[in-house]
Amino acid sequence: PGTKLPKVGTTIFTVMSQLAAEHGAVNLGQGFPDFPVPGRLVDALDGAMRGGHNQYAPMTGIPALRNAIATKSERVYGHRPDADAEITVTSGATEAIFNAIHAVVRAGDEVVVLDPCYDCYEPAIDLAGARAVHVPLDPATFAPDWQRVRDAITPRTRMLMINSPHNPSGAMLSARDMATLADILRETGVFLLSDEVYEHIVFDGARHESVLRHPELRERAFVVSSFGKTYHCTGWKVGYCIAPPALSAEFRKVHQYNVFCTFAPAQHAFAAMLDEAPGHYEQLGAFYQAKRDRFRTQLLGTRLQPLPVPGGYFQLVDYSAVSDLDDAAFCRWLTIEKGVAAIPLSPFYETPPQGQRLARLCFAKNEATLDAAIERLAKL
Ligand code: PMP
Ligand code: GLN
């Protein structure tokens, strides 16, 4: 039988982490923190497991967590989703993205994605029998060209996917972007999938323009986030989707028969964290901004040129002063020969821009890790 996903191989994140391990490289490739999760979260998880929360959770997520997410949304974005009808807890943002696509996208539909985009989008679209239509972001600023987005929308378009703060660039959509987007979608039946997993990692006093702030947009949107990014626990794979009742009902049909429910003890732990320690997510931007600023200062002592990082935990660097290799070859060379693993950008594109010489470095790391990487990068 022919493969259903001919374009899919092993993800670049796995490939680079394996290469880093084989060659003893400092791993700034795959995005994950190398520091511990909050002790309070571990205690809450331990308490949940010892307290007997080890059987199936309700399909949609435990009420305490859905209520805590609603409260957080109200505090941060001024909008309180209905915890019963509009919030579903999922096994990571990846599951939420998969469900949202499969809930509404049918065979023959088109889904507009903005390149570079995260690697799990297109395979989910392909499995739905639909087609991803790739619209490039500006290669210098990673801002959308809204006219091109407008032009990409056809009667077959079923969904548009956005991601802010953006992986891999860290670019953020502005209030003006959101107003333009609302204008573009107004007369269409296009659904919006907003990937906001880095929602709390924003810098320099900027405000994250969650779709939840925008009444018109949220009426047609699936808003997805992940506790993995917010609580330094990417391996726990717990996230959620907020969508209007009718969309949540369809979303839940997929979730129900995909996983049924998400890891129960962690749901109790995150509910406690959100309610009892809101300071954690409120201070996450400042926490990462200190890492970003220190790392960028260190990069000035190398021949890598750092691009601006408005949000998220990735630093893009232009390596054209160091090498003429294409990005995939450069990242392999950097890992094997120079001992620092990075992620090339080309796998995030359908058509990578000609001559682009950018690599992605993750700064969600201890100072010692970043220092060790800089020591090696300074020798390039
Ligand atoms: N979207 C983006 C933009 C991401 O960077 C990630 C995680 N790397 C995900 C979705 C998936 O999140 P999760 O690990 O919770 O499935
Ligand atoms: N989201 C992570 C990144 O961008 C990788 C997650 C994964 O390995 N699938 O690095």
Question: Any overview of this molecule?
Answer:
- The chain contains 15 helices and 13 strands.
- By secondary structure, the chain is α/β, with parallel strands linked by helices.
- The chain has 2 domains: 12-30 and 283-377, Alpha-Beta Complex (Aspartate Aminotransferase, domain 1), CATH 3.90.1150; 39-278, Aspartate Aminotransferase, domain 2, CATH 3.40.640.
- The strands form 3 sheets. The protein has a 7-stranded mixed beta sheet with strand order 2-8-7-6-5-3-4, with helices on both faces. Strands 9-10-13-12 form a 4-stranded antiparallel beta sheet.
- Strand 5, helix 7 and strand 6 form a beta-alpha-beta unit.
- Helix 1 (12-23) packs parallel to helix 14, helix 2 (39-50) packs across helix 11 (264-276) and helix 13 (284-299) packs parallel to helix 15.
- The longest helix has 16 residues, at 284-299.
- The radius of gyration is 20 Å and the shape is globular.
- The mean pLDDT is 98.
- The chain binds 4'-deoxy-4'-aminopyridoxal-5'-phosphate and glutamine.
- Pfam families: Aminotran_1_2 (PF00155).
- Keywords: Aminotransferase, Pyridoxal phosphate, Transferase.
